[in-house]
Specification:
68% helix
Length: 207
């Protein structure tokens, strides 16, 4: 997936259709359950991966994910994205790291009181935090976004776009395999990229 993510970053197109709402904007709408379902599906693997990287076991990592979403559900409807500062990722990082450290402090206190000592080896350090949120955040997010977006397209459109984005094959070669015109392959690729950008504005550092 790393190569696919790199190519998607390299080829992400320019300004999107301003009449379409981003996922962050849809989350601010009252009772938009579909947007919240999408958001939870998008970010759960990312948050879980970070908690595991911080040294937590599966149960504690799952609890951290739940803790973070409780904060996000309370605060995201009023969250103001600042395009100049690109502040969503930094805000999410702060919430997630704080929840990890809260849970780890509980483990320390429990161990001191003679309780369960598991999970004490993974105190979140600055190097772990920065390595993940600077180096891996975008890749995790794009990969999961693509998985969720697949059902938004006709199978052949998706397959054409996926092959164009993740392989070195030419549009003509892909079109021949899928019984599509070469131009249709380029159109499919563009549609998927535009949808990806539309969905994710504000959540990564590409504007």
């Amino acid at each position: 997936m790393a190569l696919a993510v790199k190519s998607l970053v390299d080829f992400t197109p320019g300004p999107m259709n301003s009449t379409s709402l981003t996922l962050l904007e849809r989350l601010r709408e009252p009772r938009n359950d579909a947007a919240w379902d999408r958001f939870v599906s998008l970010y759960s693997p990312l948050l879980f991966a970070f908690a595991r990287r911080a040294g937590m076991n599966d149960n504690d990592a799952a609890d951290v994910v739940q803790d973070v979403f409780l904060v996000l559900m309370a605060e995201l409807p009023g969250f103001e994205y600042d395009a100049a500062r690109k502040n969503f990722r930094g805000w999410l990082k702060t919430v997630t790291v704080n929840k990890c450290r809260e849970r780890q402090r509980r483990r320390v206190l429990a161990a001191a009181a003679g309780g369960d000592e598991s999970g004490l080896s993974g105190i979140v350090d600055d190097a772990t935090v920065e390595a993940f949120w600077e180096g891996e955040y975008q890749q995790h997010l794009i990969a999961q976004a693509l998985r969720l977006m697949q059902t938004d397209f006709e199978p052949k459109t998706w397959q054409a776009a996926w092959l164009a984005l993740t392989t070195d094959r030419t549009a003509a070669d892909i079109g021949q395999e899928l019984s599509l015109a070469e131009a249709s392959v380029w159109v499919a690729k563009g549609r998927v990229l535009r949808k990806l950008r539309q969905e994710m504005v504000g959540m990564w550092d590409i504007e």
